Amino acid sequence: MSVKGLVSVVIPAYNVGAHISEAIDSVLAQDYSEMELVVVDDGSKDDTADVVETRYPQVTLIRKANGGAATARNAGIRAAQGEFIAFLDADDIWLPGKLRAQIDHLNAYAEVGMNCTDFARWVSDDRGVFPDPLLEIPDQGGMAAGAIDQELSGWVYHKLLLDNFVWTTTVVMRRSLIDKIGLYDESFRLGQDYEYFLRASHETVVHRLSRVYALYRQHAGSATARGIDYNYAARVIEGARAKWGLASPNGECISPREFQDRLHKIHFMCGYVFWQRGNAATAFNEFKHAVRDKPLHLKSWAYALLTGARAIFQ
């Protein structure tokens, strides 16, 4: 039984002792008082859990063995008591007014089970120092707090197949929606959020607020920067197509050609990344799929031949 009006903020954390205080402080600074914070330490090897335990006695801290972000988010969801669940990655931050704008919006639109917001990237200088976050907020031109991005709102499942424009740190979901779609798929080490929000978008109308309400910290220690030699994005969208096809519940859809183009771009991009990392065999497999998806794309053929030859001698 969830507590009406309460927002449970779930923060998975792994080796973010240097950044997690900024994340938590950005939540505590929100102008919404009915909330609980649940931090799930996913087997950190640094002082992440100690920082939370020492500095933030009001936070519910869960310690667990390392299992990945999906397992940590699921542990947080299970412990959460709120009517609403909000997600925040431990190295990112929320901007002032975020939570109030999103909860007010959900209260105003009963048919919306999930909303998200725009965000900006937060990049360090050459010394690794991140600038004052308030200086990183782009000019929003007097945009209203709850302004809706009409292009990226509504039944958006078919649009999400072509572009993952929902970023986890900006998401607030109703607990009732989570009860319907279940927990994160723990078989994904990356891409679990993309799969989860595709699943959600097939069950509910999603609204994206136009204002920038969060900053995405870009640094070498992030999961996406560390990278894994497996193409999770292709697995996510191919799995979604197999389950639900290419159409949203309201009938809007993308074409098979658009989907193939999207797959091609994913395979080509991943192939190039793996090639840059020196993993020719994995890169070859991606370029082989890129050729399958778009046989007339000459660059895919060229890289497939190059990586295939290099893989033989690796």
TrEMBL record:
Residues 8-109 form the Glycosyltransferase 2-like domain. Pfam families: Glycos_transf_2. It comes from Parazoarcus communis. PANTHER family: GLYCOSYLTRANSFERASE, GLYCOSYLTRANSFERASE TAGX-RELATED. It comes from the Bacteria. Signal peptide: none annotated. SUPFAM superfamilies: Nucleotide-diphospho-sugar transferases. Gene3D superfamilies: Spore Coat Polysaccharide Biosynthesis Protein SpsA, Chain A. This is Glycosyltransferase 2-like domain-containing protein.
